[in-house]
Design brief:
single chain, 117 residues, mainly alpha, 22% helix
Length: 117
């Protein structure tokens, strides 16, 4: 056995490399009033896109009403349910020859009303 944990760790995550990184003292910078002024415009926040109309809100239910149990399933539940199902049989993808040259079916014209009676 006689193995050292340092043999299994990268050299950047050792105590020695941590001490080497933080051995220098970093002085704090002065307040924002002392910062150098930039010649460029300040960045603008993106415009907020507000939806039209009143916001839709849910009604607060009393404690005796209980929780809502809708029949509509949640997407996460559907994905989990689909993962458990066996794969469906599907037709193979079309080959290049059938995709470019589809099978043509001849359609007979319908008889007129005078020909039926």
């Amino acid at each position: 056995m006689n193995k050292h944990p340092e043999d299994f760790c990268h050299k950047l995550i050792t105590i020695e490399s941590y001490k080497e990184t933080y051995k220098y003292h970093i002085n704090p910078i002065p307040g924002q009033a002392f910062w150098e002024q930039s010649q460029y415009n300040r960045p603008l926040a993106p415009p907020i896109k507000r939806k039209l109309g009143n916001l839709q809100t849910k009604r607060r239910k009393d404690s005796d009403e209980g929780t809502s149990s809708s029949k509509k399933a949640k997407p996460a539940e559907l994905a989990a349910r689909r993962a458990k199902l066996p794969a469906r049989r599907r037709s193979p993808p079309p080959t290049p020859s059938t995709a470019l040259n589809p099978i043509r079916v001849q359609v007979q014209p319908l008889p007129h009303d005078s020909q039926i009676f």
